Amino acid sequence: MAKRKKAAKAKSKAAAKKTAKKVVKFTAKKLAASNGLPRPSAKPWGQAGRALDGVRILDFTHVQSGPTCTQLLAYMGADCIKVERPGIGDITRGQLRDVKGADSLYFTMLNGSKRSITIDSKHAKGKEILDRLVKLCDVLVENFAPGALDRMGLTWEHIHKLNPRMIVASVKGFGPGPYEDCKVYENVAQCAGGSASTTGFRDGPPLVTGSQIGDSGTGLHLALGIVSALYQRNRTGRGQRVLCAMQDGVLNLARVKLRDQQRLKHGPLTEYSQYGEGVPFGKATPRAGNDSGGGQPGWILKCKGWESDPDAYIYFITQAPVWTAICDLIGKPEWKTDPDYATPPARLPRLRGIFDAIEQWTMTKTKFEVMEICNKQDIPVGPILSMKEIAEEPSLRATGTVVEVDHPTRGAYLTVGNPIKLSDSIADVRRSPLLGEHTDEILRKVLGYSDKEVAEIKASGAITAPEKPTKAEAA
Ligand code: CAO
Fold first, then answer.
1. Is 104 touching ligand 1 by the criterion CB < 6 Å?
2. Contact in structure between 445 and 56 (CB atoms under 8 Å)
3. For ligand 1, mutation pick of 183, 208, 215, 216 (most atoms within 8 Å of CB)
4. Residue 153: left if φ>0, alpha if ψ -120 to 50, beta else—which one?
5. I want to staple 242 with a disulfide (CB 3.0 to 4.6 A). Which of 91, 225, 362, 448 is the partner?
6. Is the CB–ligand 1 distance for residue 65 below 6 Å?
7. Buried b / exposed e across 408-421, counting CB within 10 Å, b at 16+?
8. Strands across the sheet with 56-60, in order?
């Protein structure tokens, strides 16, 4: 009996050992597969599709902020279906027109790589088509005035019921609060987000910047929100709302100025040139002209030709580690050891004089000569490049940052390609669509309408502009 018991014990011990071995093997295999991810593709880099392949976007955006976001997602591979009002389309198609009868650059440069379908969202049949699109898309992106989407019947509740996986992403001017119902354009956001009050010269009015930090900046924020929501959806299986307020987006980009606001409580902002000039600070972060925002003082200096060329300037940074090289370059070797100039704190109250001296040197060279000489010495400088120079810069063409695309009605035009470079997801930058160019294709191939149904939709007026009354009818 004892012998039998002993044998059974040994048998079960061996079985347990075998199972444990199997578990270890299984876990190792699983780990090798990297947490459930598929095996690494064996396809050559750039040939395994694009990052957002398979993501379908119902693009209800217009003007600039929303279109910036969806264009970027389209460059990343998403199928972006832009819904536009029949006969009119995105208002920017006709704004700032440079070629008669053709879509403006305002529109074409913000809507590349998308498809266009015209649907009257207030028409009963149009609503039916939109509901079908909601069921088939992953993300709805919109930047209408507050309440407009709800007035179309596309409330969050309605969308979530039709498609619980859908992500609904919106740009609004302001977040919840006293201004939530306001319509907002770029410069309103720059002013409300803290950028304008901290831009410009101390003795001048607040200034807006040419970079569209309110519109394009918020579009970029929204794109990150959408991609994050898509990633979370992989775990939760459900969509969510993504909101980016333009005021918040601008403030996020101007955060160093909120930093300075808090530093003011503890004394003057010593890196601002106003400190060296003995001008007292007020209660709020002041405008700092061309001072650099960081701890390394900088300024814009004239270069050779500045009298006739408005862009013959260079940004020059007196970075501490290369101070001695700067002194030698501008013919002030004595500043290397002079206690008034040798250390960064000693230089702070003398910055204006220092930059005047450097400018005497930069004015003897073109901005590109300054660039070449300084970079050899590791001195950080940046030429003020005009848009003409940027448009013609071969290296920007080579990297796909500036792209020339063809267009059937306006001819070739330049656009900004994807500024975010992914080594395995090569951006596909194509021309913007004509108004309603893909209506038929989307109705049939995406939504599966039959010939008969398409004919009915066309006759209903849901996808076509209302006919203009004839003279006789109007009379
Ligand atoms: N079919 C039928 N109607 C349509 C439609 C379609 N396909 N697409 C849009 N519309 C309608 C909307 O339903 C809305 O109608 P109601 O007001 O009657 O509900 C109407 O067109 C106009 O929408 P809007 O109010 O958004 O447009 P606007 O030109 O008056 O305002 C803007 C533009 C940008 C100020 C506003 O949309 C806004 O504040 N957006 C949020 C902030 C933003 O993105 N600003 C940046 C803009 S870029 O500088």
1. no
2. no
3. 183
4. left
5. 225
6. yes
7. eebeebbbbbbeee
8. 115-118, 79-84, 56-60, 139-142, 167-172, 241-245
Burial 436-460 (b: 16+ CB within 10 A, else e): bbbbeebbeebbebeeeebeebeeb
Residue range 85-96: mean pLDDT, rounded:
97
**Calpha distance 445→455 (Å, rounded):** 15
186 lines ligand 1 (CB under 6 A): yes
CB of 415 within 6 A of ligand 1: the answer is no
**Dist. CA 186–CA 64, nearest whole Å:** 9
* Per-residue model confidence as pLDDT tens digits over 417-459: 999 999 999 998 999 999 999 999 999 999 999 999 999 999 9
Query: What's this model's pTM, rounded to 2 decimal places?
Result: 0.91
**Residue 407 near residue 431 (C-beta atoms within 8 A):** yes
Measure 147 CA to ligand 1 centroid, in angstroms: 9
Per DSSP, the residues of 414-458 read EEE--SS-BTTB-----PPPPTTTTHHHIIIIIT---HHHHHHHH
| Cβ 215 under 6 angstroms from ligand 1 | yes
HSE-up of 433 (CA within 13 Å, CB side)? 23
pLDDT score of 23 more than 80: no
Nearest atom in ligand 1 to the alpha carbon of residue 148 is 19
- How do beta strands 381-383 and 139-142 pair? unpaired
Enter the DSSP assignment of 74: H
Q: Are 72 and 418 in contact (CB under 8 A)?
A: yes
Residue 171 Cβ < 6 Å to ligand 1: yes
Residues 212, 152 contacting (CB under 8 angstroms): no
Chain Cα centroid distance, residue 239: 22
Edge to edge, the sheet with strand 298-302 lists: 298-302, 313-317, 381-383
188 pLDDT exceeds 80?
yes
Which residues in 192-335 belong to E strands, given as ranges?
241-245, 298-302, 313-317
State the distance from the centre of ligand 1 to the C-alpha of 293, rounded, in angstroms. 36
Nearest CA to ligand 1 atom 20: 148
Catalytic positions are 215
Q: Is the CB of 152 under 6 A from ligand 1?
A: yes
Ligand 1 midpoint to CA 350 (Å): 52
Distance between CA 249 and CA 214 in Å, rounded?
7
Which DSSP letter does residue 300 get?
A: E
C-alpha 143 to ligand 1 mean position (Å) = 7
